[in-house]
Amino acid sequence: MSSLPPVPVLLVTGASSGIGRATSLEAAAQGWHVVLAARGVSSLEEVAAECRKAGAASTLVVPTDVGDDTAVEALVAATLDEHDRLDGVVNSAGVVAYGRTEEVPVEVFDGVLRTNLHGSVNVARHVVPVLRRQGDGRGHGTLVLLGSVVGHLSVPSMSPYVLSKWGVRVLVQQLRLENRDRPGVGIAYVAPGGVDTPIYRQAANVAGFAGRPPPPVASAERAGRQVLDHVVHPGRRGQLTLANDVVRFGHQFVPWVYDRIIETSFAIGATDLRRPVEPTAGNVLASREQDNALDGRHGSALRDLVGNVATRLTGGGRPRS
Ligand SMILES: NC(=O)c1ccc[n+]([C@@H]2O[C@H](COP(=O)([O-])OP(=O)(O)OC[C@H]3O[C@@H](n4cnc5c(N)ncnc54)[C@H](OP(=O)(O)O)[C@@H]3O)[C@@H](O)[C@H]2O)c1
What we know:
CATH topology: Rossmann fold
Strand order of the largest sheet: 3-2-1-4-6-7
Distance between the termini: 44 Å
Number of domains: 1
Largest sheet: 6 strands, parallel
CATH class: Alpha Beta
Helix content: 40-55%
Number of strands: 12
Shape: globular
Bound molecules: NADP nicotinamide-adenine-dinucleotide phosphate
């Protein structure tokens, strides 16, 4: 891609929490212009204040639901009105639902696909033409789409999320193919493993148990730095941890082993079986912005792992799927 100007313009969706918040703060610390989007306005304003304090050249808050194509169009237009260009876009908006395929309520299932998959398409639909027409015929700028290690796997109790992330990964491949004629346009893919953010507690849940980031758990700040690095170097490897590669290898090359152990590994490593959860739509259908934050405060993965093993050994905490 063409090199970034001295003070780049970065648009971040999902900017009010977790990885999007950390990416915005990292860009602000480097003196960039940041445009911040998510559904809830108060938590966005909070992040804007943090970004100004961190050193952002400017902040612009545009409350936006990425599942709404017209709203995304207006978001991109507002950014161009303010800055007249776009150097980077990070689509970090995302939601999770736990439960068996047939048990997740239809509006929640569709809501996860709407934000994670259709949201990614909506962002690409309005961002890519801008990147293509910048840079004197070569194109200019990077679109980063947030996938996940589960976009390469099957995982119990996470059907809509898994489907959405497989879709995002394929969307990246499509966009790369379609933009080969513009060497200045970067389409970056970032697939985190476990990151300590609020997404697990914000999740819709009919599974009955709490989710948590699987080890090795990265901080939101670390993931944010890695995401921002992909804005500058869109060709970088998308997998954020080596553990992603191990589990992907298992799924692809020894599926008979993977399928036998994933239910138990997931229950022990990616849940907190000691914390029952009542059925909830979480933040899938509407923002619960009071719970947006930089990190998820999940604490020690080892402690939960030991607790989960003990719960299993005493016959409790068996997820329904
Ligand atoms: N944390 C992990 O372990 C992990 C692992 C792999 C991949 N990821 C991916 O990384 C991305 C960021 O996740 P995170 O962990 O940082 O989550 P998070 O802390 O829950 O943040 C999610 C952000 O998305 C916003 N959002 C949700 N629905 C939206 C919508 N329809 N339109 C616009 N904004 C919306 C939320 O704000 P509002 O609710 O106010 O809109 C919030 O700012 C997601 O794509 C997630 O799938 C995370």
